[in-house]
Structure formats: structure tokens, C-alpha cells
Amino acid sequence: MLQSDTAYALYHSHAAKMPIIDYHCHLVPQQIAENIQFRDITQLWLVDGHYGDHYKWRAMRANGVSEEYLTGGKHSAWETFQKWAETVPYTMRNPLYHWTHLELSRVFGIDKLLCPATAREIFEECNAKLATPEFRGQAIIRRFNVEVVCTTDDPADDLRWHKMIAEHPFGVKVIPAWRPDSAMAIERPESYKAYLKRLGEAADMEIDSYPALQEALKKRHDYFAANGCKLSDHGLENFYSADYKESEIDLIFKKALIGIAPAPDELEKFRSAFLHDQAVMDAEAGWAQQFHIGAIRNNNTKMFAEVGADTGYDAIHDLNIAVSGHRFFDRLTREGKLAKTILYCLNPKDNAVMTTMAYTYNDGTFPGKMQFGSGWWFLDQEVGMRRQLDSLSNLGLLSRFVGMLTDSRSFISYPRHEYFRRILCDVIGSDVEKGKLPASEMEFIGQMVEDISYNNAKRYFDF
Questions:
Q1: What is the pLDDT of residues 157-172, one digit of tens each?
Q2: Which of 430, 393, 404, 440 is nearest to 7 (CA)?
Q3: Closest residue by Cα to residue 445 from 456, 458, 432
């Protein structure tokens, strides 16, 4: 990944030594708190109950592996692992090929290619190590010099596991991050009513109107802040910025309470009001906010009915995000309620659109207050990362970038930070070698690499 002497020097003298701030991930707080000991490499890597690595699942399905090895639960850990080992050679030029072997090397010290011939040996060596204290969940996190982990948490969550971690520290700060998507999901009245009941119980109040919903969310927002939360996250198809009246939103909300799903224009108005009110709440609390834009989810309805959401049947959406995004951020700017904001797109066609959107609303109050975030989901691979870095560099300030995150549910995804840092150093090192950046400024350039790897995130989120 390091294609020049300068890139090599930047990585090994600057990037490699920096701690990790994983400011957005999907690790399960309970597993961290209980210091999970994984049964085997299959649980850690491929299938853990209903959940698993949907990146690998998509590849295995494409390679002809039956669903019963993935979500079906009909085969042993070894049989599922064997199917992954059969698939790995066919993932060449997919990032899974690099990630698989990087994780085997960095986590387990195994520098062999995974294939059917080596599968049994690797399976048994990984399992033997996973049975030791050095490979329990907390030890794995510490192994990668992780300083802060931000999980993804629903407003109704009681944060009991975060409290347990705080009471029994293990050297890594674990902080909740606010993810209120379920509180906006009014399009499914029955499940929404059930969620409101749960949220109301957490806030110790009845939620019978839109103002009551906002009051409940504010109480939970304050509770999250009291437990260390400093940032929010929203997973959306698009930004929402329709015009609306408060009375309309309350009527739409109350109709949902009696089981009436909103019409498309009503849904747009409700989402617009909800998202705006959440952004104001974040700004008033001094939080940073993240917007992940552009996924179209649960597209294979047959498989969604059989195995549920987040199982590998999502894809890249293709929407016009510019008009709605600018309307959304312009209103917040006019009201003086724009928080620190990171924008992520899932469609690479939106890289420049989203970068210029972010940089339209910087106001000089904080370096990189609005910025274009790292390559996300389908784009957190080499080409996606390079394109993100190029767009950010060409249209913004790469030097103020808060860098990489795992966005993963896996305890062993931290080598993705190494992957990103190597790519970053190769991009910058190539420019130095070609004379596009001055070799006389290597002290500043080295500091820039350290900042992107770690320092910028620490300052930005005030950790």
C-alpha cells in the first residue's frame, strides 16, 4: 500500500504510532462490558446469533454458498468457516481479501493465505487463541491502542452497559452515541407505537403528542449527555427540509397513534420537523452530529421477510441530495443552530456535492466545523477512500479531516485504521515524490498525518 519511500516514512514515523479514536461503530456495549470470550472464530468473524458480517455474507452468497450456512443456523461453526475459506480466494480485488488477511496477521499473528488447504489449521489456531484471556473482547480493543470507542445507541436505551464499563474501566473510554432513527420511523404506525411506549417508559412520561415526543427526547438527550455522549448519528436516505407548520406535525403524529400511516407529503414534513428539532438539540448541547446519507435498504423483500434487516440486502441509493441538504443546513445557519457536522455519502457521485455542501456552512468558529466524512460502507475500500481523500483535498481542507472510523460490529475491524492510514500516507507521499507538495515541509506534512490519524478527532469531539 506504500508505493514510495516518502509514503513509507510518513506511515512508519507518524501514522502507525498514533492511538485510535473510533468515533462511530456498532460494537455491542453488553459484549464490551461483559468482556466477551468468543466461542470460536466463526462467532467473532462470521455469524453471532442473528447478526454477523454482512460484507462477508454478500460475498459468500455471490460465491454460491447457501443461506443455511449464514443466517440459517443449520451448520457447525467449522462448516460455516470452511465455506468462508472456500470463498476468500475468489474475493481477490475486493477489500475483503485485504481485510481478511490483515486481521489474521494483526490480531492472530497468522501470515498465511486463507483457502481450503489452510482452513482447518487457521480455524484451530484462532480458536485456541480465542480461548485465552489475551483474546477476550476488551483485550482485543486494547491491542490496537484504542483510546475512545463510540457505540451507536437508541434514545430509549438505559445505558446500563456503559455505566458498567465506566464503573470497571479497562483502559479504553467507551461512550454512547445518540441514534434516534427509530423515533422518526412514523411510516410504520404499529411498530412506531410500540417504540413510543418504550421511549416513554425510559423518559418516565406519556408520549401523546409531537411536543411530548420532543420533551421525551430532550430528557433522554440530557441523560445521554450525563453519561458522556458528545455526538449523534442519523442514517437517512436523504436530507429532509420540506416546509411545515407545527400544527401539521402534531396532527400527523396523532394520526399515527391511531394507526394511520402518513401520506408521502406528510411523511416528508414529519421527517423535516423531526430532523430539524434534533439538529437544534445537538447544537444547544454542544454535540457534533453525523449524517449518513444514501442507503436504500431491505431491497430483497423475500429475504427481508425471512431473515430481517441488516443482513446484506441493502444497496446504494441514487437521489438528488443537494437541494434538500442545502435547505436543511441553511435554515439551521439562519437560526444560529448549526452544530459541528460530518457528512457521509454512500453514492460516490455525491462526493463533490457533499464536500461543497459542507464547506458552504463553515463559519470560522472551529477548524473543520462542517466537513466531508470518510468513505462509508460500500465506499470504505481503497478506491472509495482515495476518491474521498481527493474530493476533500480538492474542495476543502484535508489537513482538518477527523479521519477514519470502523463503522463495524466486529471487535477485530481496527486494522481498517491501518489500511486507511497507509492509503493516506501513500496519497500524500506520492504528491511529495512528484513535487506537488514540498519536500522541505516534511515536518508540517508529518504533523498533518498525525492530526488526521488522531489529533483532529480528539480536538473535534472534545474527548
A1: 999 999 999 999 999 9
A2: 430
A3: 432
